Amino acid sequence: MTAAPLSIADLEHEERGLVLQRFAHEEVWLLGSRLAERARREHLPVMIDIRRTSGVLFRAAMAGTTSDQDAWIDRKSATALRFEASTLLVGLRMEADGRDPFADGWLDPTSYTLAGGAVPIRVAGAGVVAVATVSGLSSPEDHALVVDEVRTLHAGLW
After folding, report:
1. How far apart are CA 4 and CA 144, in angstroms?
2. Measured distance CA(149)–CA(48) in Å, rounded
3. Contacts of 17 (CB under 8 A, 6+ apart)
4. What's the CA gap between 18 and 23, in Å, rounded?
5. Ordered per-residue pLDDT tens for the chain, 158 residues
6. DSSP track, 83-115
7. For 18, how many CA atoms within 13 A lie in the half-sphere containing its CB?
């Protein structure tokens, strides 16, 4: 699985196109189980997490994952929830601004990261209601995996 490089404009357009009509428990289960099944089928050593600010809704760790990925998941999810944008997009925006948010102390590196793989879940009329996060591949690949499955859920193809 190889993800094509994306620009800020590409990622902003992508996020505008991923607004769901609802994201209740059934959709959480569908998205999480679909991500886990794809990871199993493609032998991807990833951890999958879907959460709201109030806590974890879905979690799966595939063969080949390590406990270190728990910390990556937490930091990626915190970033996407704080900025209401994918971690890949937040990272590109910071880079374009010439800003290292960790160097100036704005972001705590033990709580946040700019590594790709966390994608906010938006619902029409409600905004960001959750974040889906994958950790274990490269940043662009983690991001692409989540986006592919959110896009499938959005299109109602399940």
Report:
1. 9
2. 12
3. 151, 154
4. 12
5. 555 568 999 999 999 999 999 999 999 999 999 999 999 999 999 999 999 999 999 999 999 999 999 999 999 999 999 999 999 999 999 999 998 999 988 899 999 999 999 999 999 999 999 999 999 999 999 999 999 999 998 888 54
6. HTS-HHHHHHHHHHTT--TTTTTSS-TTT----
7. 27
What type of residue sits at position 84?
E
The model's pTM: 0.92
Contact (CB, 8 A) for 64 and 45: yes
Note the residue count of the chain.
Answer: 158
Q: Please, are residues 12 and 89 in contact by the beta-carbon 8 Å criterion?
A: yes
Residues 6+ apart with CB under 8 A from 126: none
pLDDT at 3: 56
* Contact partners, residue 144, CB within 8 Å, separation at least 6: 1, 3
| Contact by Cβ (8 Å): 120, 14 | no
